[in-house]
Amino acid sequence: MSIYPFISRRWNISVSTYQKTRNINVIKNCFAYMATNIGDTIATVNGMVIFPSPTPATDLGDSRTVMAHAGEILAANEIVIVFRVPLGANPDVEIVQLQYITEQEQK
Fold first, then answer.
1. What are the pLDDT tens digits along the chain (107 aa)?
2. Which residue in 72, 79, 87, 107 has the fewest CB atoms around it within 10 Å?
3. DSSP letters for the chain
């Protein structure tokens, strides 16, 4: 029995990597996203700093997660990635977005 007063919802995952400063569209029905620095350059994601690993070839850098409350979706329309200068040899940020799927999308 769930401690939450709502029925559990089905969800899906979207994973993409980005190597340039840019704005990314938040996917439909997104309830959470995680940004991980997998490169060698300091980056910000929606203003949150994520540092690279001191050894990027073997370890991941910082990550940040933004999540809505249970059953809600994020109101934001975009995720803003900015790489700080000077750029390293491999600026790279992985964005994982989680989205609720509708009954029609489940079929």
1. 455 566 678 899 999 999 999 999 999 999 999 999 999 999 999 999 999 998 877 889 999 999 998 888 999 999 999 999 999 999 999 999 999 997 776 65
2. 107
3. --SSSS----EEEEEEEE-S-EEEEPPTTEEEEEEEE-SSS-EEETTEEEPPPSSTTTS---EEEEEPPTT------EEEEEEPSSP-S---EEEEEEEE--HHHH-
